[in-house]
Design brief:
7% of the residues lie in helices and 45% in strands. The chain has 538 residues and is mainly beta. The chain folds into 5 domains: 33 residues, no CATH class; 105 residues, Immunoglobulin-like (Sandwich); 106 residues, Immunoglobulin-like (Sandwich), CATH 2.60.40.650; 90 residues, Immunoglobulins (Immunoglobulin-like, Sandwich); 150 residues, no CATH class. The termini are far apart.
Length: 538
């Protein structure tokens, strides 16, 4: 006989249980030993049963002693002896030996039926809780749990109040109808019972009606409702009528108590108007051999802004008009484009071309055409000419701007430029030449060797400004709109204006009257008695 069996027999004798059958059991054991035949027993595969689970007292003050007890029995389910028991609170123990161990009431496990108990402080949140108890037999079978309720009173009161809701908010506010809106709030049961906040919901334009569950559920911001105080949120499409609305939020604690709603107003507005697309910005226009190439910044609504640009339209005309009015459609470009090449329209093509570039959006709207690109051709006879280049050049070097013209010399005048340096001269065959830049506000004397054409490409800005310094200024007429002198210089105080006249030898200059016309590519001598800025529109 094993020591375990002797211990069991001794326990039975000590407790007075089984005294009438002890001799029979011992005789059976001895008989088996003497005869030499071992006792046969089927394996125990059935778990013990937990009965009479109890939490006492059922209603207990926080921190007071709380006794858990039960009867664990394997009688009729294998008849193995009970070797352990454990408990868990508010949920069954997830797996064996994951709970809190309990004690055998008689001081020792080892019977087919065992009373078990455990006394602990009731350190649980206010409200109803449940204790789950189960046991293990000597065949290592764990039984199912038996459950008993108990109620914890915090601060000496029973929790019958719902959590308090505060800091309700809606963002963005105002919100565009149909766009996402996020409702947030704080829900706290710490001062109204001390239970966990278990849920929250919202209703629009009135508090949620009883019972709980009639609103739209909200989420715990930290991912789980497991604290007395919870931040809650919910993002939904703002499919509400235009105007003012209220969002009302309330919470529920783990005891089922529902708090009052707290409301917050917000405004739903209509979508912003669909504005015409932003215009593209011309950066440069250049001659690329026999082609014209211009580069531009895409519309501010191409890939950003309203992001509704679907393409670009290129309009082209042989004559200039402000805003590209009347230009026929020449080509289209997809959204995302930033350049255009007009094949065959460059050197070798002796026709003027003016280009208007517009963006178009998905609503069929078009941007304006403020700046333009241009390719121009001017025929010059051999001799001296007073000229200007009215377009903004990507490369203002003389050798680039005048590349198609057969010329010997180009010179301009600066005011003031220092003693002996008022004139800047570029001469193809002189070592002292000055390779100055040709901007669209300066005039040039150009000595042309043979009859030849000047072909240029550049950008025409909607507004051009020309600084005028006290004294004589050698300046361009930087506009493609013909005007009288009086109209062009309205608002400018000048003493004299001289223009090119090949019949007036030897200086080839004539003083202009207010009725004389000014044309593109003209150069002028302008005398003013104080610094001014001359502005012209295109």
């Amino acid at each position: 006989m094993s020591g375990r069996m002797w211990a069991l027999l001794g326990k039975w004798m000590k407790t007075g249980r089984g005294q009438g059958s002890i001799l029979l059991v011992a005789g059976m054991l001895l008989s088996g030993l003497l005869i030499g035949t071992p006792l046969a027993r089927a394996p125990d595969t059935q778990p013990p049963v937990t009965l009479n689970a109890l939490a006492s007292p059922e209603i207990v003050f926080y921190g007071a002693p709380l006794a858990f007890s039960a009867l664990i029995s394997d009688n009729g389910t294998g008849n193995s002896y009970i070797i352990a028991a454990e408990y868990c609170v508010d949920a069954p123990c997830p797996y064996p030996m994951s709970g809190f161990p309990m004690d055998a009431t008689d001081g020792m496990f080892g019977e087919v039926m065992e009373d078990v108990n455990k006394t602990v402080p009731a350190n649980y949140p206010s409200g109803w809780h449940y204790v789950y108890i189960h046991g293990e037999d000597s065949a290592n079978n764990w039984g199912n749990s038996s459950v008993s309720p108990f109620y914890v009173i915090v601060n000496g009161t029973v929790d019958n109040q719902g959590p308090i809701t505060s800091n309700v908010n809606a963002a963005p506010d105002p919100v565009t109808q149909g766009d996402p809106i996020t409702f947030t709030a704080d829900v706290d049961d710490s001062t109204t019972g001390g239970n966990l906040t278990a849920a929250a919901e919202f209703c629009i334009d009135s508090p949620c009606p009883p019972p709980y569950g009639g609103g739209t559920p909200m989420d715990a911001t930290d991912g789980a409702f497991d604290e007395m105080a919870e931040d809650v949120n919910k993002t939904v499409p703002a499919t509400y009528a235009l105007g003012n609305h209220t969002v009302c939020v309330r919470g529920q604690d783990s005891q089922g108590n529902v708090g009052s709603s707290t409301c917050h107003s917000f405004l739903v507005v209509g979508p912003p108007p669909d504005n015409p697309p932003g215009k593209p910005t011309l950066l440069t226009a250049v001659l690329s051999g026999g082609n014209v190439l211009f580069v531009f910044l895409p519309s501010t609504d191409d890939g950003s802004g309203e992001n509704d640009v679907i393409g670009y339209r290129v309009y082209r005309s042989n004559t200039f008009a402000s805003g590209g009015a009347g230009y026929p459609l020449h080509s289209t470009l997809p959204a995302g484009s930033s350049s255009y090449t007009d094949v065959g329209a460059g050197i070798g093509d002796f026709t003027d071309h003016f280009y208007c570039l517009q963006s178009m959006d998905s609503a069929g709207q078009f941007s304006g055409c403020f700046d333009q690109a241009a390719k121009n051709v001017r025929l010059f006879t051999a001799g001296r000419h007073l000229v200007s280049i009215p377009t903004e050049q990507a490369d203002p070097a003389i050798s680039t701007v005048l590349q198609t013209l057969d010329f010997q010399e180009a010179r301009t005048y600066q005011n003031p430029a220092g003693y002996g340096k008022n004139w800047l001269v570029f001469h193809k065959n002189k070592p002292w030449t000055s390779d100055f830049s040709i901007t669209n506000d300066i005039a040039l004397w150009v000595l042309v060797k043979t009859d030849s054409s000047l072909v240029t490409a550049g950008v025409i800005r909607g507004v051009e400004t020309v600084p005028l310094k006290t004294g004589w200024n050698f300046r361009a007429y930087p506009s493609f709109i013909p005007r009288t002198v009086s109209t062009a210089f309205a608002g400018i105080s000048y003493q004299a204006i001289e223009g090119f006249d090949p019949s007036q030898k030897p200086y080839l200059l004539r003083k202009l009257t207010g009725g004389d016309m000014l044309y593109p590519f003209a150069g002028l001598w302008i005398h003013v008695n104080y610094d001014q800025t001359w502005a012209l529109t295109n």
